[in-house]
Amino acid sequence: MLQLRPNCEHCDKDLPADSTEAMICTYECTFCKSCVEQVLKNVCPNCGGGFCQRPVRPLTERRKGLSRLHQPASDVRILTKYSETQLRAFADEFCRVLPEKR
């Protein structure tokens, strides 16, 4: 199940479960839309893949047992181990290759 991490791994911006600013890669690395566009250039610094908008888990239970009340968002904050210089260099190396071709 998707973790719904609570923050951007680069700038540490809060990304609550209902945020439309949260972007994830296939491994659930989580960054804010601003960092994905301006720093990472749609290149995940961990796996090299691309990003898409993280889905919003419903607050209201519409099917039994399925809602944020039953599967709450994670409260574990994760920060990248890479410096901004390293992030930008990695992004620059791969940003011209489409995510599906990386």
UniProtKB/TrEMBL annotation:
It comes from the Bacteria. It holds the Pfam family DUF1272. InterPro entries: DUF1272. This is DUF1272 domain-containing protein. It comes from Pelagibaculum spongiae.
